[in-house]
Fold:
Amino acid sequence: MATPVQNKAEIIERLGSVDLEFIDMSSKPKWSERMRVVARSLKREVRVYRLVLKDPRTPRPAKVLLGLAVGYVLLPFDLIPDFIPVLGHLDDVIIVPALVLLAMKLIPKEVVCDCRRKAEKIDE
Structure:
């Protein structure tokens, strides 16, 4: 049987994922409210990635992969041009998250948890 969770940081450490925003699903949240939650989570994740890149404990291959993900988002051109229906936007949806996920798997969990805690402190 699982032990009870003491605080939010412990939840994050156990799950090893993004900081969760809990929404009361008994009343369906408005679209704008959901978008605000997504934007806040995305902003926090970007902050975590920046902290991870600065951390000296982060392995070089992970830094390279995160750098490639950021570079791919910022490049003015894509591997598959956006004017090609579906495939043009699909490469952005697949390549960037795949690079980020692969990089995060290479980074020790302690580093990610420390960076999430630091990002939380910045948010407060």
Remarks:
- The radius of gyration is 17 Å.
- The helical segments are 8-15, 31-54, 60-74, 87-106, 109-123.
